[in-house]
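Lab notebook, bench 4. We co-purified these components, and the gel suggests they stay together. Before we commit to crystallization screens, I want a quick structural picture of the whole thing.
Request: model the full complex, all chains together.
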Amino acid sequence: MKLVGKLLLSIMMVAVASVAMAGTLERVQQNNVLVLGVSEGVAGFSAPDSNGRWTGFDADMGRAVAAAVLKDPEAVKFVPLASKQKIVAVSSGQVDLSRGTTWTMKRDGKQGVDFTVVLFYDGQGLMVKKGLGVTKGTELDGASVAVVSGTTSELNVADYARANNIKLETVVFDSKKEAFNAYVAGRCDAFTTDVSQLASLRAGASNPGEHVILAETFSKEPLAPFVCHGDNQWKDLVTWVLYGLIEAEEKGITQANVLEMKEKSTDPVVRRMLGATGEVGSFINLDNDWLVRAIQAVGNYGEMYDRNFGPDTALNIPRGHNNLWTKGGLIYAMPIR
Amino acid sequence: MSTPIKAFIPDPPSPPPAAAIGVVHWLRENLFSNWFNSLLTIASLLLLAKAVPPLVSWALVNAVLTGGPELCDGTSGACWSFIGAKARVMLIGTYPAELEWRPLAAGVLFAGVVAATVSGRCKKRVLTAAWPLLFVAALWLIGGGAGLEPVDQSMWGGLMLSLGLAAVGILLSVPFGILLALGRQSKMTGISSLCVGFIELIRGVPLITILFMASVMMPLFLPINLQINNLLRVQVGIILFSSAYIAEVVRGGLQAIPRGQIDAAKALGLSSWMVTLFVVLPQALRHVLPSLIGRCIALFKDTSLVIIVGLLDFLGMAKAASQDQVWLGHEVEGYVFCAVVYWVICFGMSRYGRSLEKRGPKHNN
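Here is the predicted assembly.
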């Protein structure tokens, strides 16, 4: 397996070198479609609805980019990719943009892809029953925790317990579903895996209201959409469209009021981003209405989050780290000027 | 005056003793013939008593049959309305809603040709023409082009994709496999070693590896502007894999034909091509029909592996559909539905294979 991996990598290197020169923006404009790599179905991020339409956070992200570049949020071709395929699919130019994936040094530096903006700070969290009355992980001293075997979550829990000087008894299971069922049945006091997974499993439980996901996380899983390494023009474009959505939330620009804001706002930053003054769109090879179209398509970052993870959805993931920096989170857009 | 002849009137036969007929006898004979069997029977009954009631109450008694996802919250039974809501996605995937009639029409055509083939009433010549025509028509209907709006391959999915991959796979890998088997028997060293090499190479690696090579590795070797469709690459991979196995099955049949028959046919003045076509192959294929059908069933089930290269076939779509926010937590119902559909199709193929075996050489040569 190691050997195969090395072989694959070395071939990838060669391929990457030959790919880097191609212009993704020209290709997207020429084909008049954005090819977006999505998952094979992960609740909240990308999954087909009952009519076969792709929905979710990653799908919305792709529609925003398509609206900015191609003036049509529906000009997106959704390509489901297995997690083993997604990196190669981007580095070999099969897809133009891929779903949010954990941003790591190896992927960024060695595997031929470039990450854009972290849109979702995922991380390992804890779920407990409401009746327990626990609000912080440190209150779980002496509790038993269900974890999935062969994952880093087992190590993370141990580190967390040691760092906080508490005792946690880990009970290992083969699959997420199995671990979750054991926790629901009362064999364990708590259950741990990535927060987005916790939320998805909780939503499928017979009584979701019984379980609470604690706000703190103790591992880094920053999910960022990524593009082919070396195509800076395309990377800049995607990056700034996503920053635009974040900045829009900060400035209170929504899907509903975006046109009104463009007409009436006196805030110079808002006027610049929405193309009422200046021409920031040209910095990323787009026209002046780039961000207006993107916001019209999917709303600002907060609206996108609420639609897919918000309190009205089955997942109901608290904003936590994914709140704006002004509200105690990590979501921060670079200045648009 | 005559005395009536004493007629012999036999007593009506008395029924066999109660222990030798009916339910009691059957039970004794089959379930309680000795202490070990009795023990097994009782153990099985206990096991069934433990397993069946919860299953029935889950699948039938407490099940929700219709209605929205909110009705399923809080029930302890199955949520079959999930299947109803997701049937569209599981059958045709993310195919555009306004063009749904096209895969439907292709499905009707497919069912028609299958029915004609299974009924056995159609002429062989008609069927040989019908299948390739069906594929052209189905590909045109589903993929578009030539007057129809094109629909990209990334939108094909569900049962439609599984059946398509399997049907094309079977119809191309059988002839290709026969050619490989004949090639392996060839006296020309070049051809035979090529065939042996191909067969052993393919049989030496798992299907997953071939799919990975086709889907993940191949794009790295190709120039960036030459993009071969992912589905096509996977389909070719499946055909290569299946034909290597079919070649070995057919070789078994070829070796079962006695040498004398070939000599006799040659003595009658048949060319070696004619010997193969009219004497060896018809008999060989008849010998290996059960294993050939087995390979076809296996190939249909193998298509569910394509999920690992991001093609959402029937099983993959069932899995993806259970990730819809509105319907979370119903993957079990989806898997049960998939199992039933897979079983029906595979059992149908297996019955058809039996009927082919029974039909005899006159109707099927």
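Chain B touches chain A through 49 residues (CB under 8 Å). Worth comparing against the SEC data before the next meeting. The longest helix of chain B spans residues 272-302.
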